[in-house]
Amino acid sequence: MPKAKSGAAAAASARLAYLLELARGSSHIGSTLTPESEKRAIAETLAEFCQAYGDAQVALFQQLLAEELRHRGKRDAAAAVAHFKFAGGSGRP
Length: 93
Description:
Layout: H1 7-17, H2 19-30, H3 35-53, H4 58-71, H5 75-83
Helix pairs in contact: 2-3, 2-4, 4-5
């Protein structure tokens, strides 16, 4: 029987699987100029992810997206993503 993936292994696997979405989303969110446009960009990014992959992994994707933004030096945007309350596939905060 195969072992379940550890948290770190699952995150690494998801990071590879969602590489394009993470790059596109972090670029889109990181380029916003106002808090309102940032919220819209976060909602759009998460909604597009849900449309492509479903809601099951959106929390993990949101965590990885925040990490990607921190890696790019966008700490405020990373915090906004991490604290964003996503209402399922609707894309509404």
